[in-house]
């Protein structure tokens, strides 16, 4: 039972990372596409305003996932990290470039500095989710065998499934960000920006939908087993939830129901992630089940107990942070 | 996972992996120390500003908070890289022992959450919260920062004194995670590290103002900016020397090979001298100043105690002697130099309620930040290089833990380039922040630019 609880907690962490940090990455992508310095300034300011106070806390979810992996399923962590060391090194560098450039831009006063750091921030926001997506595609399409560096160092993450997963990750982050930003802009009374991001959300929503459909074809050709896992049995309801929520988001966006679309957009992502997880359970890597890979009971009990107590501190604090940062600015 | 099946990796890839880990850890440790020490000193300034209404304290708090925002961001991402590298570079360690050291890292994750959340609140709600709640919102940053440092260092202490697990045929069969976390090395190592963080932050912050004062800006604002952090660091320094002695005696008892390398003791001897300086050549420490029986006295509290020499250990299990020895000398030298500075300040303060007026005092403070960083890095080299060739002392060799995938050298080159750019950018941005006029704006919010401190 403890291994199951642990893997669920890990997946909750991964979901939170995808939703919250994903939207922060997407914010960077919109920063990249905001246009020239003067014309794009209001959009960039909105992005900065929305993610500034929260991105570090959102980023911690990734550390949480990594640490829980090596604590809870150490041999799987070692296998994934060693085989996928190239894309994961690129992810790590992307994270460094993005976080520091964002902080540097914030305190820079000159235009050329803001441009330079802004470009680093925006570009790394685009590539980091791509490489993370390819890594997820590698695990999902059974290309990471157990053992240390046993998989192919190049083709494990350069294959049709990984590439489509990478593109989907970029698309989803951009879409989530556009959806979240519409509401942020609306609350700040910037209806022009809300409209701009609504348009972007609609376009990216359609693109992500097309990409997902293409993804199913790619899986059919490249990873039929994963497709079967996703479309039969336990995972099917979750996949249906994802598709229905994704489709429902578009009319909601059209009708400017920005708060409701936050929920449906998030559900579309949640459905996909949990569909993958549930479909693949109990196998983590080819031939390695959760029970075989899980750490000893004492470790799981101590860690989960500590995390439960920690959650009592973290959850209310997170709530306070989001409330403080979401509250509109009253001019002082 | 079978350890015996792992190939022994040697050559450039192992060197590259170790250097990459050393580079990214050695970089992060500086920022992390500032991240642990700065919030406390900043809160102290904010609290003094609130209590006394002194605008200069409030300005200082805001400036430091602004720098903290940058440093924390850089610290957060450079720390993330380390958790990646644990797996990317050392899968042989994490695949087997990840669960043994997982608990403190999970706790560190919680602490890091708290730190990031309250930093977001503290920095961004400066003008939205009344002064006292705002001050209080900073307290969890300090507590969580100290807690993170504690948790991370317990994992490192475990690598020095691995306890709390049983293996059979290279597989973990039982783990006592709390025993692993509270291993014998945990108390001295964590204390030494946390105090080091406050020393680095205090001396480094004071350095900035000493430089400004040497350039002629000797107003009360700069004096306070120098005195407050310097006082914190000066109070910590003598305590740290005592804790350092404790840590060294612990090494003498539990890692005699490391002590022998630190002191360059090749032959086991009774009443061993303390070596100052010197260099190891052909199995001998040359050109060292010898203080008779000093080492036996310091390490074991008995001038006639036996010090185990390197000759008791096969040469294949020696750490690199000169690196460890010189790093230890550098750390001790810097520590005592900083102690002298602290004493100078204390004597002057007790006599005249004033810091020393000599320009040499300002010059000394100006370089004290650098000295503290050198001591920090040197101490960390002693701990980590002194543990070699083991990644887990006496249990797992570094060469067995490294990722056997080819091409680690190229990863190292790429990471080095990125860190080079990161270093240049960080120094540039921090220098700009230090030079800007002290404008009373909230640390992060452009939309409250007009807010006045008074």
Oligomer: heterodimer
Question: What is the total tally of β strands of chain B?
Answer: 10
Measured distance between first and last alpha carbons of chain B: 64 Å
Q: How are strands sequenced across the largest beta sheet of chain B?
A: 1-2
The chain-level mean pLDDT of chain B equals 87
Main β sheet profile of chain B: 2 strands, antiparallel
Question: How far apart are the first and last residues' alpha carbons of chain A, in Å?
Answer: 53 Å
- Assign the structural class of chain B, choosing from mainly alpha, mainly beta, alpha/beta, alpha+beta, or little secondary structure: mainly alpha
Residue-averaged pLDDT of chain A, rounded? 87
Report the sheet-strand fraction of chain A.
Answer: under 5%
Counted beta strands of chain A: 2
The structural class of chain A is mainly alpha
Taking pLDDT < 50 over at least 5 consecutive residues as the criterion, the unreliable ranges of chain A are none
Write down the overall geometry of chain B: globular
Q: What percent of residues of chain A adopt helix (DSSP H or I)?
A: over 70%
Describe this structure in words.
The complex is a heterodimer of chains A (332) and B (454). Chain A is mainly α and 332 residues long. Chain A has helices at residues 2-32, 37-51, 55-72, 74-83, 85-107, 111-140, 160-187, 191-222, 224-231, 235-254, 258-280, 290-293, 297-326, and strands spanning 283-285, 288-289. Chain A has one domain (2-326). In chain A, 82% of the residues lie in helices and 2% in strands. Chain B has a domain at 16-235 and 392-448. Helices cover 69% and strands 7% of the residues of chain B. Chain B has helices at residues 12-52, 55-89, 91-97, 102-124, 131-160, 177-181, 186-214, 220-254, 256-263, 294-300, 321-352, 359-385, 398-401, 408-435; strands at 165-168, 171-175, 269-270, 274-276, 279-281, 284-286, 289-291, 306-307, 390-392, 396-397. A two-stranded antiparallel sheet of chain B has the order 1-2. In chain B, strands 3-8 form a two-stranded antiparallel sheet. Mean pLDDT of chain B is 87; it is low at 1-6 and 444-454.
């Amino acid at each position: 039972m403890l291994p199951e609880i642990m893997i669920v907690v890990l997946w909750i962490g991964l979901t939170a990372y995808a939703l919250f940090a994903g939207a922060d990455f997407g914010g960077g992508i919109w920063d990249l596409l905001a246009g020239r310095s003067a014309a794009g300034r209001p959009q960039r300011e909105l992005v900065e305003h929305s993610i500034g106070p929260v991105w570090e806390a959102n980023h911690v979810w990734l550390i949480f996932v990594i640490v829980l992996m090596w604590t809870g399923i150490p041999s799987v962590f070692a296998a994934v990290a060693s085989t996928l060391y190239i894309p994961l090194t690129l992810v790590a560098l992307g994270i460094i470039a993005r976080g520091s450039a964002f902080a540097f831009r914030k305190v820079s006063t000159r235009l050329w500095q803001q441009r330079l750091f802004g470009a680093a921030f925006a570009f790394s926001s685009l590539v980091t989710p791509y490489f993370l997506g390819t890594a997820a595609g590698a695990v999902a399409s059974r290309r990471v065998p157990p053992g240390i560096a046993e998989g192919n160092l190049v083709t494990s993450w350069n294959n049709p499934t990984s590439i489509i997963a990478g593109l989907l990750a970029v698309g989803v982050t951009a879409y989530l960000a556009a959806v979240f930003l519409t509401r942020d802009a609306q609350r700040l009374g910037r209806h022009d920006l809300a409209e701009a991001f609504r348009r972007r959300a609609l376009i990216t929503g359609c693109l992500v939908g097309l990409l997902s459909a293409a993804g199913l074809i790619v899986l059919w050709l490249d990873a039929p087993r994963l497709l079967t896992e996703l479309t039969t049995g336990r995972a099917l309801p979750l996949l249906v939830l994802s598709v229905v929520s994704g489709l429902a988001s578009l009319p909601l966006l059209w009708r400017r129901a920005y708060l409701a679309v936050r929920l449906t957009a998030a559900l579309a992502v949640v459905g996909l992630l949990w569909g993958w997880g549930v479909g693949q359970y109990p196998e983590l890597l080819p031939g390695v089940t959760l029970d075989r890979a899980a750490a000893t009971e004492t470790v799981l009990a101590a860690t989960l107990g500590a995390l439960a107590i920690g959650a009592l501190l973290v959850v209310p604090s997170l709530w306070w942070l989001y409330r403080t940062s979401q509250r509109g600015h009253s001019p002082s | 996972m079978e350890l015996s099946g792992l190939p022994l990796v040697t050559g450039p890839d192992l060197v590259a992996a170790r250097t990459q880990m050393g580079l990214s850890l050695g970089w992060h440790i500086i920022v992390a120390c500032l991240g642990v020490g700065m919030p406390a000193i900043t809160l102290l300034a904010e609290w003094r500003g609130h209590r006394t209404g002194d605008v200069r304290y409030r300005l200082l708090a805001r400036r430091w908070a602004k720098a903290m925002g940058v440093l924390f961001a850089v610290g957060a991402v450079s720390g993330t890289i380390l958790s990646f590298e644990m797996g990317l570079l050392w899968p042989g360690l994490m695949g087997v022992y990840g669960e043994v050291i997982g608990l403190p890292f999970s706790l560190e994750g919680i602490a890091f959450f708290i730190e990031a959340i309250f930093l977001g609140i503290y920095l961004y709600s400066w003008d939205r919260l009344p002064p006292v709640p705002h001050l209080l919102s900073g307290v969890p940053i300090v507590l969580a920062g100290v807690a993170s440092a504690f948790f991370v260092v317990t994992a490192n202490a475990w690598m020095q004194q691995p306890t709390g697990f049983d293996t059979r045929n290279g597989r973990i069969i039982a783990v006592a995670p709390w025993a692993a976390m509270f291993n014998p090395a945990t108390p001295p190592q964590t204390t030494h590290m946390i105090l080091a963080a406050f020393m680095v932050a205090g001396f480094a912050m004071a350095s900035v103002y000493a430089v400004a004062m040497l350039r002629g800006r000797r107003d009360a604002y700069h004096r306070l900016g120098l005195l407050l952090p310097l006082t914190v660091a000066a109070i910590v320094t003598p305590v740290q020397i005592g804790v350092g002695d404790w840590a060294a005696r612990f090494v003498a008892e539990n890692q005699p090979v490391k002590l022998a390398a630190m002191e360059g003791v090749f032959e086991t001897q009774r009443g061993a001298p303390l070596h100052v300086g010197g260099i190891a050549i052909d199995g001998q420490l040359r050109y060292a100043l010898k203080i008779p029986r000093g080492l036996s006295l310091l390490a074991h509290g008995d001038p006639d105690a036996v010090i185990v020499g390197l000759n008791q250990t096969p040469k294949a299990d020696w750490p690199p002697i000169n690196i460890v020895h010189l790093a230890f000398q550098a750390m001790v030298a810097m520590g005592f130099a900083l102690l002298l500075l602290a004493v100078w300040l204390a004597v002057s303060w007790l006599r005249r309620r004033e810091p020393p007026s000599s320009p040499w005092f300002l010059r000394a403070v100006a370089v004290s930040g650098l000295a503290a960083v050198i001591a920090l890095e040197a101490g960390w080299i002693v701990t980590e290089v002194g543990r070699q060739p083991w990644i887990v002392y006496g249990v797992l060799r570094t060469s067995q833990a490294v990722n056997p995938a080819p091409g680690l050298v190229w990863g190292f080159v790429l990471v080095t380039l990125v860190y080079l750019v990161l270093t240049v950018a960080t120094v540039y941005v921090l220098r700009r922040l230090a030079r800007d006029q002290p404008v009373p704006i909230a640390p992060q919010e452009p939309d409250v630019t007009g807010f006045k401190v008074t």
